[in-house]
Amino acid sequence: MEAIKRNVLLNPGPSTTTDSVKYAQVVPDICPREKEFAGLMKGLREDLVRIVHGDTDRYTSVLFCGSGTINIDVALNSLLPEGKKILIVDNGAYSTRAAEICRSYGMDHIDLTFPVDQVPDLARVEEVLAGDPDIALVHTTHMETGTGILNPIREIGALAHRYGAVFTVDTTSTYAMRPIDIEKDNIDFCMASAQKGLMAFTGLSFIVGSRAIIERSASYPTRSYYCNLYLQYEYFEKTGEMHFTPPVQTIYATLQALKEYWAEGEAGKWMRHTRVFNAINEGLDALGFRQVIRPEDRAGLVSSAIYPDDPAWSFEKVHDYCYERGFTIYPGKISTTNTFRLCALGAIDVPDIEAFFAVFRQALASTGVSVPVHYDTKE
Ligand SMILES: *Cc1c(COP(=O)(O)O)cnc(C)c1O
């Protein structure tokens, strides 16, 4: 096996993968309608439930061919009964995307927005739930990847259940990294894709959740032909296969990634992401960078640094300098503040972050940005 040039991706997914996961895609051609392939998917689906500690009798996972957004689309359009309403607890770009999905299907919804640098006010969430008995579905995002803020999903889920609503959570940027317990966290459905926490590739997305609720949703309006949770679930249950062509090579890579996940272990993997995250914050602090999210509200995976007030600062120039040397940094996703992000996803460890900051410092020096970086306003 020849080593492939290793890039350190500090963007919020797809993430740096191991060579063994890359090479797992190189397999003999196979028709995914063969029994051999269906057998692989069965084990994969159960593993995806086990990662969030779900009991495989009561919880299942349903696979889709697409990037992570397909999960949000499927969950929302499939789990809303006729005449009912969705509540989106929205403090960032990914919950805003969920509200856009509601709008594009013409689904009745409340987009309950909060500032992007603050956790949602639970009293306000409860007030809205108490005031509107038509809310049948509550949706939020575990970590808003645009900023790195951690949302209190267990508490939001408890509120949703108290008012008789189903709770769906976009866990795309935390699943298989920050430990999740589907039952204790009051989650009915969570979701992710293979290219983030699992450290495999784009093309395979999945929703993990309650069989009973999926079965109940058989009678709900079918708002999409391709993106329907019940139809895909039913097909899997009957045939063990995806309704339409699965992302074959990505599934092979994901199977290898799962082996590596279990070998590293939930606790070991979370510890590694945590030390990478800490190294990123220490590096940013040492250079004087300010961040958007208060330390106590950070999910431990994404750092969102504010552009310094230095006329020499150019994200593009710094990005290009780092990129040419094998490190990818990423712009922020906030409309009101100019930020860039450094993320602790992927098969990386502390030495990668130390090597990155050596290059990043050179990038600042070579573009004439003074260090420690300067801000015009007091903190
Ligand atoms: C990455 C991500 C997604 C999926 O984005 P795609 O570009 O469709 O893969 C969805 N939600 C969150 C929170 C994410 O971080």
Task: Name the CATH superfamily classification of one domain.
Answer: Type I PLP-dependent aspartate aminotransferase-like (Major domain)
Task: Supply the helix-strand structural class.
Answer: alpha/beta
Radius of gyration based on Cα positions = 21 Å
SS elements, strand count: 14
Which percent range fits the helix content? 25-40%
The average pLDDT is 97
Q: What's the shape?
A: globular
Distance between the termini: 51 Å
Low-pLDDT stretches: none
CATH topology (fold) name of one domain: Aspartate Aminotransferase, domain 2
What is the CATH C-level name of one domain?
Alpha Beta
CATH architecture of one domain: 3-Layer(aba) Sandwich
Order of strands, main sheet, comes to: 2-10-9-8-5-3-4
How would you describe the overall organization of this protein?
- The protein has a domain at 29-247: 3-Layer(aba) Sandwich (Aspartate Aminotransferase, domain 2).
- Helix 2 (35-50) packs across helix 9, helix 3 (69-78) packs across helix 4 and helix 10 packs parallel to helix 12.
- By secondary structure, the chain is an alpha/beta fold.
- It is globular.
- It has a seven-stranded mixed β-sheet, with helices on both faces. It has a three-stranded antiparallel β-sheet with strand order 11-14-13, covered by helices on one side. It has a two-stranded parallel sheet with strand order 1-12.
- The chain has twelve helices and 14 strands.
- The model has no long low-confidence stretch (mean pLDDT 97).
- Strand 13 and strand 14 (339-343) form a beta hairpin.
- Residues 12-13, 67-69, 94, 141, 145, 170, 172-173, 193 line the site of pyridoxal-5'-phosphate (PLP).
